Structure formats: structure tokens, C-alpha cells
């Protein structure tokens, strides 16, 4: 059934609208329609993209203390580089200082960059706006691996990592990249004797390197950095009409409600305006929390939602969210022991909560479309989130405390998604109220915003 045929009617009289806004079933149906429409907005790319080449331009590697390194990399040169390297965290690989001296290598890199930008679905970015910054050279000898992890933001504007596997015969060392329950494999061994392979993935996805079975897997690691032009966000899609109709009904009902502020005021545990929260596919750090840093399908969904908000008297914000769930766990004498994993840990090393006795949900950090702080540490109800069962998957982090004389073992699971907030303009000023209460707001700006049109013309 077309979800647009099931839009709730919130355009009747003021009293009818007041009743409808308060009905949980109406809110649920609105969220269901929004979720369906947003899901139809898809990225042309993936969270990981890759390519293999039978041959390529020689980068002209030069390692201090060793000199020029030819390709394919010989066993002798690989061992020499290991001697001048240091251990890398999370695994048993080694990293080496290196520079590229062949000017033709930059042309080759630009080709890799353009293909990576397209493969990752960054369709609104100009390839020349994406900079490649050499981060390190990694050497994986037999038995070396890299544990599952996310890349940290190593430079301002970094949104992805690009790894180039150089000609060096090896077996194993496959990279497994995972995101939202889907896994992709980057296999380099079959093309390693004379060929090049590269892969790029978004910085927030989980990835690991399986053990190298033989030989030396040698890769150059680049940070992909994006500083977009002012004209970057221009994409418009055919889902804007559907979003318009959905938001129009909701905002009209809310604006006509005579109790909207009273309802907010009575909920003392809720410190943010009435809002709809759409959780994004990717996670963003505070440094990355801006429109310019949105990735792939997140960017496309934002652009279409922003267009609908502009037409329907809504503001749109970005927010980092934290859900914490605390509960008891079974005592595990093997936890942290020789095998590194206890009987009551799942495959990702998290304890299973046997009983939950404490939980919280907050907007940790909220920014407006200009990147200015709009709020922080604001509790809000889970009913505002458009997605159902948003926190049923694996947590992002865990705090564990073992048995003590006073209490049994317990753990706290943390879920840290990033979301888009849709807020009717009629109540978006409440963000400023909360900032002012924390002595962080701009009183002059707030006073100016609160003036009536008549007041603004006086003096």
C-alpha cells in the first residue's frame, strides 16, 4: 500500500488537532510513513569500494635509512623496512616512515581518489575538493593481523580511509569491513605478486585485517579529506513531495495546538523541544558534526529533508545521541583471562545484561545548520525517534564492573548514534532557553528573536 494514502488527517479544527497530536497511535503512523519515505532515498555508493589493477605507476618509495624501494617488494627489502619500523596498535603489523618521490604517482593517486569518491556515493562532492594525505606505510608479515576497530579522525575534514596494497607476494590478510549488519571483503593476496589493489571505506565503519598466512602484505594508508565548496549541497530528489505532505500535516497540527508549550513545560524530565529524530546510517564525532561532513546516503537524506523543512516552517539540527543501559551480568571467572573472552560475552566482547535497572537517553551535543552549538545533555523520550527498536543491536561501548563485596557484577551498554532533528519553528527557541539556563546562550540574540514584529520597530 502506498504510505501516502495512509497519512493521518491533522488539518481539522484546533480542538481536533490538539486531540490528534496527543494520540500515540497517530504519532506512530506518522513515524512509520516518514521512515518508509526516508528508506526510499538511497545512496548510489557503498560504505566500502575497491578495485584491483594488473599494473600501475611505481610510487618511488624512499625509506629513511634504507633508500629507494623497488617493486615488487623483495623479501630482503621487506625485512629491512621491518627493522626500521615500530609496532602498530590493535594488532601485530608494523608501520614505517616513507615518502613517494615519483611525480607520476600523484596522477595515479588522483585516479584512485576519483574512483573512491564515486564508489562511496559522495555524488555531490567535486573530486578535486577531496585531498589525499599519506598517513603511514604498514607491513604485515606472516601471522600479523589487525583487530576490529574504527578509524579515528586523524585530520580536520577526514571522512574516509584509502588503503593501497603494493606488489608484494602474500597470502591472507583479507580486510573485512562491516556496517549496519553488512560485511564486505577486500582481498589482496591473489593480485599481490605484481599488481596493485586499493579499497576505501568511511572512517566510522568497523574493519579488521585477518592474519597473513605467508609473505609480506605491504600497504600505503591515506586519509581522505574533504573541505567542500559553498555550493556543495544542491542535490534534490523526487521524495521531497512525499516529505512535504508528511511534515505539513504534523507542523500544521502542532502550530494550531494551544497546549504545545504547556505540554513541554509539564514534562520536567524532557529538556528539549518536541521533535522528530531520524537516526543516520553513519556516526559522527563532535568535530565531524556538520552538514559538510555528512556521508553517502546520510547526505542525500539530509538534503531532501532540509528542503521539506524549509517549506513547512521547521528547523533541522544535527545531534549526537547517547542511550545508556545498565544491568546485572553473570559473574564470569574467565573474563579477561587467558582466552580473553568469558562464557557470558558475545562475539564482539560485550556482556549480556541479565536484568536492566537503569537507562537514560540524551541529546549529547546539538548543532544547527551553521555548526553552532544549540544544546547539550538534553534528556528526551524514545518516542521521538522515528525508527523502531533503535537500540536493539550491539552497543558501541561498554563499562564493566566485576563482583565486589557490596554488589554483583554489572555492566553499562552505550549506544551512540547520530540523528537529524526536525523541530517546528514555533518551539525551536526552547533550545536557546536551555542554553541560557546553563549560562551558555546569547541573551541579546534571544531577546531579539522573542520580540513581536511591533516591538522590533520601536526605537
From TrEMBL:
<dbReference type="InterPro" id="IPR044862">
    <property type="entry name" value="Pro_4_hyd_alph_FE2OG_OXY"/>
</dbReference>
<feature type="region of interest" description="Disordered">
    <location>
        <begin position="1"/>
        <end position="24"/>
    </location>
</feature>
<dbReference type="Pfam" id="PF13640">
    <property type="entry name" value="2OG-FeII_Oxy_3"/>
</dbReference>
<protein>
    <recommendedName>
        <fullName>Prolyl 4-hydroxylase alpha subunit Fe(2+) 2OG dioxygenase domain-containing protein</fullName>
    </recommendedName>
</protein>
<feature type="domain" description="Prolyl 4-hydroxylase alpha subunit Fe(2+) 2OG dioxygenase">
    <location>
        <begin position="136"/>
        <end position="222"/>
    </location>
</feature>
